[in-house]
Amino acid sequence: MNNKNTADDYGRVARWLHWGTAILFLLAYMVVYYRHWFTERQTAENLISLHLHLSFGITIGVIVILRIIWRNMNERPILEPGPGWQHLLAHLGHYTLYAIMILMPLSGYMGTGTNTKYFYLFEIPKFSETWLFDVFVWDYLGLTFEEFEKPIDFFHKEIMGAWLVWMLIVGHACAAFYHHFKLKDRTLIKMTRGE
Ligand code: HEM
Ligand code: HEM
Question: Is 12-191 in CATH node 1.20.950?
Answer without folding.
Answer: yes
